[in-house]
Write a structure and sequence with these properties.
The complex is a heterotrimer of chains A (about 290), B (about 550) and C (about 350). With about 290 residues, chain A is mainly α. In chain A, about 70% of the residues lie in helices and about 0% in strands. The chains are: A mainly alpha (about 290), B alpha+beta (about 550), C mainly alpha (about 350).
Chain lengths: ~290, ~550, ~350
């Protein structure tokens, strides 16, 4: 259904009315809850221990006793999925918590202040971005050993430049816009301006990007697992489970399929929620 | 849809594809001017070539490069492909005369390199001495004869146009010397051809990185690092000329991709698949699974010199560990017969190998041993492993069984380089490794597991910090022992000692599995995984 | 008529000089950091050379030969000097000069990444535009899910499944590798770009074969990258849609498509360009998983193997090449963005 033509006299009210029923936000939040709640309640929801091995029952297809089958060591896949959500979502959150604020800070500063600070920050951003993620990740992992934390570190350090660049691009467009002029005329300058006006304007693009990146982070952990550098066994983690499952992909498809499906659902959830929030949050549309 | 249906349909696809490939190959061959003569003469092997650093026999010491050497070069003596424990295969020597400290070889009269040059004693002398002088990874094998860069030339003497004498200073017998000269590092290279490509005193090392100058059944047509090794038949090869015209060894890094290639028929042989993949493929029409005994043994090592965990020095811990490994479960359940249970350092197939397997999983026995030793208060150990299959799987199995006896194992997966580094620097607590003999003699394994000279030289026993002055003496005696029967007895005893008293728990012996198309015949593989013979293969 | 012509030329020159300086400085910094990082790598190339059983003396000799006993600033200096003359050292894991290896592997990745880039730009922008024209409809939902799929599923998993379906079961497309065996080892590849070389070789069937082997990897990379272009562009377009000038244009009777294409899209041009640059850069070095599954040569695989082997010359060489690409892409994007939208 297209946007109905808006009455010229009360755009704000009309827009608010349309947004109140953002289906994206509702569906997205629902899916998120669907994933997060079982993760939190994992110990009470699983019949099996995710670490108990049973070599006699390895690689069993989904059945009543094991609704998602068993993996290469006879462990119950469903339990590992539920417990794995903690590691996976935890990793994604950790990385996001560092990546986005630092990227935003660097990008907004660079874009707004301009001049030598802009050049310096852009040079640093470009330097870090020019780094193949692999080099950094493998260097870390090589020194510190494979593990969730080290993967997170590597991803954090290579992820923030993207946000810096996007924030800078947005800020520069914004710099001479009427929106900021209006604020400046009201006497809002400096940090208050940046935090209160520039930052919220950058957020929509950031949100969309972050939503995509959360899935990428999870998949990066999986790629590390594929290359042999993932979480330490026997920790369950979706990405590692997919990497393990890829070795028996054609016969025992379920080991990689279930975590893959969950990552897809999580990604969908992140993206829908982000877009739903964006519908509420973009201040520029409020003028 | 029944399993048979789907597999038949994929077989039909592969038939269509093979016919199409045949036409293409023919067309390509004619148009590009090269005689590819059609697919029945081309063997395509899918494996990973990422481990090759050099195709110079004096430098290459990785699985894939040594496999290539078996096809590209010949040595004075070689293991017989059909009787791997014996050294009377078709080597360059027609016969030899053994005396204490010396062997006089007679070269085959028809011995000729791939480029037509005759094999002369000068080539033998040059090849062996350059391997010692270059002093790269595999040269330690020749050092075992007491040869050093300074002295090696004195030990190699040309007697006449067809005879060469090889002497050595180390206290070892002629049987040992023959085994050493049968290793790939002792490959005979054409001095004249290689010498003409030598740069600034590198003895041809740079050129031999990607060229061959040998007398083996094949020669290198093209080598693209990490991508492909293309071999052409050498019709002049002494011994039988190969039946195939070309071998293409494609480097395919992912195991699942290799599986697809052999299923479709674009590869005739696929190596290094996972145990579950082999199990799934073995019954497919159009494919055959071949199993070969392999000399690789896997073991759990405790670093008794680790000061953080003095418990590691307690022999009761080692004893308990022997009862805490699920040998059968890992070999037959987890790793689907890619392994067999073997508890001694000489692999089955070696003469004198100890085939007894007295240990099995027995948690209560282990618990009582630990209790008697006062080690049952809960012990945590780190277990270092390579970060790939099947090591991580084995480690997780160990984790579970050791936990049942109250020992917590923290798995630390790492790159191979890191693990070896930690082992060398004695910073591991427990580590799971594997051992492949370097040459075909019991001394190779014995000197690793039962020799600790405390003089800076490394061995597995040294890495475990196992002090064994008497056993070391015995090992040195065994290599000198001229009587074959007595020698075997000595090695049996040494193996028993290592099996029952050492901080090294030997658990499994690998079984090499290879999947190939049903029409591939004549493939042979020896006890060491580098002994791969393509010369009799037909399709 | 441009009375300020001389000033513009001067400005252009200053920009060029400044850009060149930035480029050099960034590359130098990149080299330093990579050097430091690769020396932290656990693999010891000297040990690899002499082997486990080498004596201490030969180990020391190997270290000396490889220059590992020098302090790292000196090593870096030696390397930089060589690099300036085009000598990037000898790779420890292939034994060949690094420059030769890179000549072989980089064009392969470049070809793959560029084709994927073009595909995802067209598809991504197309999807975003469709969404902008039909916001909040079924089409919109479809677009969002499609653009999500490739980005949310592990690419190596998709790759293996795609190979299984299209190569093994159906036999429609070429399998791993860049060409069938029949062509791979008989065709010369002087340029390193398989499409170009197959075309020029004149061998019948080589070019279609190369295309057939490219379809799956490129499709996968497009699926992977399209989301990161389509979604932010869609978000930006939707943000533009609420603006006054859009409402004005619609109110004066302009068609939806004309408003979207002529007014909304250019307004987001700089953002789109930034996205394209980011995606291209990501594809260049992120193609490693696709290269691994499809057994294609590429700089990603080369770098990964080098990292695992502690092959410092190869690591440095690859990082240098990838770094130069990134910097160039960013520089071009910035200039283009500035041209298109002088506000930036």
């Amino acid at each position: 259904m297209n946007n109905p033509p808006l009455p010229a006299c009360s755009p704000r009210r009309a827009i608010r009315r349309v947004r109140a029923f953002s289906p994206s936000l509702i569906v997205g939040s629902f899916l998120l809850l669907l994933i997060i709640v079982p993760a939190l309640l994992a110990p009470w929801l699983t019949a099996h221990d995710p670490f108990t091995q049973n070599l006699a029952l390895r690689l069993q297809a989904p059945s009543l006793g094991h609704p998602c089958g068993t993996d290469g060591l006879g462990r119950d896949v469903l339990s590992r999925l539920l417990y794995g959500a903690r590691a996976t979502l935890g990793l994604a959150t950790l990385v996001a918590l560092f990546m986005v604020p630092s990227g935003l800070a660097v990008g907004i500063l660079a874009g707004y202040v301009g001049g030598w600070l802009d050049r310096l920050l852009t040079a640093v951003t470009n330097l870090v971005m020019a780094f193949p993620t692999l080099v950094l990740a493998l260097a870390f992992v090589g020194v510190l050993g494979p593990g969730l934390l080290n993967c997170a570190l590597a991803l954090m350090l290579t992820g923030w430049p993207t946000y810096a660049r996007l924030a800078r691009a947005e800020t520069r467009i914004l710099r001479r816009s009427e929106y900021l002029d209006a604020a400046r005329m009201q006497g809002i300058v400096g940090a208050r301006l940046l935090a209160g006006h520039v930052l919220p304007a950058c957020l929509p693009t950031m949100q969309v990007r972050l939503a995509l990146d959360l899935a990428s982070i999870i998949l990066a952990a999986s790629a590390f697992g594929f290359l042999g550098l993932g979480v330490r066994p026997p920790t369950p983690e979706w990405g590692a489970m997919i990497a393990d499952g890829s070795r028996v992909l054609f016969e025992q498809w379920w080991i990689a399929a279930f975590p893959g499906f969950l990552i897809f659902v999580a990604s969908l959830a992140f993206n829908l929620a982000a877009e739903g929030l964006r519908d509420y949050g973009d201040p520029r549309d409020a003028t | 849809m029944s399993r048979r249906d789907s597999s038949t349909s994929s077989f039909n696809v592969s038939e269509r594809r093979r016919r199409r490939r045949a036409t293409l190959l023919l067309a390509a061959g004619c148009l590009s001017g090269l005689c590819l003569a059609g697919p029945p003469d081309v063997l395509v092997v899918a494996q990973s070539l990422d481990d090759i650093t050099s195709l110079d026999p004096a430098e290459g010491y990785e699985l894939s490069s040594m496999q290539a050497f078996t096809s590209l070069y010949q040595r004075l003596v070689q293991p017989d492909p059909d009787h791997p424990a014996s050294m009377t295969g078709a080597g360059l020597a027609k016969g030899w005369q053994a005396e204490p400290g010396s062997l006089a070889f007679e070269l085959r009269p028809d011995a000729v390199f791939a480029n037509g040059h005759a094999v002369r004693p000068e080539d033998v002398i040059w090849s062996l001495s350059r391997a010692v002088k270059l002093n790269l990874s595999p040269s330690f094998i020749l050092n075992g004869l007491g040869w050093t860069a300074a002295t090696v030339e004195q030990h190699l003497k040309k007697i006449d146009e067809r005879h060469v004498r090889v002497t050595w200073s180390a206290p070892v017998g002629p049987a040992f010397a023959l085994s050493v000269l049968g290793a790939t590092v002792a490959s005979i290279i054409d001095e004249r051809e290689t010498g003409s490509h030598a740069e600034s005193g590198d003895l041809g090392n740079r050129w031999l990185h990607d060229h061959s100058a040998g007398s083996g059944p094949f020669k290198i047509r093209k080598y693209i690092p990490h991508e492909a090794l293309v071999l052409d038949a050498n019709p002049l090869s002494p011994g039988d000329a190969p039946r195939l015209k070309t071998i293409v060894i494609r480097s395919v890094p992912d195991a699942s991709t290799r599986e697809l290639l052999v299923r479709v028929g674009d590869a005739d042989i696929a190596r290094d698949l996972g145990p579950d993949q082999y199990a799934a493929l073995r019954d497919r029409p159009g494919l055959q699974l071949r199993q070969f005994p392999s000399a690789a043994v896997h073991y759990l090592l405790f670093n008794t010199a680790n000061t953080d965990r003095p418990e590691l020095a307690n022999p009761s811990l080692w004893q308990a560990a022997r009862w805490l490994i699920d040998y059968q479960g890992i070999a037959h359940g987890l790793l689907k017969d890619q392994f067999q249970v073997h508890q001694s350092f000489l692999a089955t197939g070696f003469r004198g190998a100890l085939d007894d397997t007295p240990y099995r999983l027995d948690v209560s026995r282990a618990r009582s041993i630990l209790q008697a030793a006062g080690l049952d208060k809960g012990l945590t150990l780190t277990l270092d492993v390579f970060n790939q299959a099947p090591f991580t799987e084995i480690a997780q199995s160990l984790q579970a069984t050791f936990a049942a006896a109250g020992i917590r194992l923290e798995i630390r997966p790492a790159l191979a380089g890191t693990v070896y580094g930690r082992v060398r620097s004695h910073s591991v607590q427990a580590v799971w490794l594997y051992w492949i003999p370097d040459y075909f003699d019991a001394h190779s394994s014995a000197s690793a597991f039962a020799l600790n000279l405390h003089d800076g030289s490394t061995s597995i026993a040294e890495r475990a910090g196992w002090s064994i002055p008497q056993l070391s003496d015995l090992t040195l005696r065994a290599v000198r022992e001229p009587d074959a029967g007595r020698r075997l007895e000595l090695y049996r005893f040494i193996q028993t000692q290592v099996q029952q008293r050492s901080p090294i728990v030997i658990a499994l012996q690998e079984r090499s599995q290879v999947i190939m198309r049903a029409n591939v015949r004549g493939y042979r593989q020896g006890l060491n995984a580098d002994m791969v013979y393509y010369d009799r293969v037909t399709k | 008529m441009n009375p300020d012509g001389g000033g513009a030329l001067r400005r252009l020159l200053t920009t060029l000089v400044r850009s060149a300086a930035t480029l050099t400085a960034t590359l130098a910094a990149l080299l330093c950091v990579t050097f430091a990082l690769s020396s932290l790598s656990p693999a010891d190339p000297a040990l690899k050379l002499v082997g486990e059983h080498g004596s201490v003396a030969s180990y020391e000799q190997a270290r000396h030969l490889l220059g590992l006993d020098l302090p790292w600033p000196q090593r870096l200096g030696r390397y930089a000097e060589g690099a300036f003359h085009g000598d990037l050292g000898i790779s420890l894991s292939t034994g060949a000069p690094v420059a030769r290896d890179l000549r072989r592997v980089f064009p392969a990745t470049f070809e793959l990444a560029t084709l994927a880039m073009m595909g995802s730009a067209v598809l991504g922008l197309g999807l975003a535009l469709i969404s902008a024209v039909h916001p909040r409809g079924v089409t919109d939902v479809l677009v969002r899910v499609i653009s999500l799929a490739g980005n949310s599923l592990p690419i190596f998993w998709l790759g293996l499944l795609a190979l299984y379906l299209f190569y093994a079961r159906l036999g429609w497309l070429g399998g791993p590798g860049r060409l069938d065996d029949a062509y791979e080892y008989t065709i010369d590849m002087p340029s390193g770009f398989v499409l170009l070389d197959a075309w020029r070789s004149g061998v019948q069937g080589a070019f279609p074969n190369a295309v057939s082997h490219l379809i799956l990897p490129v499709a996968l990379l497009v699926a992977y990258a399209v989301g990161s272009i389509a979604r932010p562009t869609r978000a930006a377009l939707l943000a533009e849609a609420g603006k006054d000038y859009v409402l004005l244009a619609r109110a004066t009777g302009a068609s939806v498509w004309s408003v979207v294409l002529r007014q909304m899209l250019p307004a987001t041009a700089s953002l789109v360009l930034t996205l394209l640059a980011l995606t291209y850069a990501n594809l260049l070095q992120g193609a490693v998983l696709v290269e691994t599954v499809f057994a294609r040569p590429g700089i990603g695989r080369y770098l990964t193997t080098a990292l695992f082997a502690g092959d410092t010359p190869a690591i440095l060489g690859s990082t240098l090449v990838i770094g130069i690409c990134f910097i160039l892409i960013n520089g071009v994007t910035d200039s283009l963005a500035h041209l298109l939208d002088p506000r930036t």
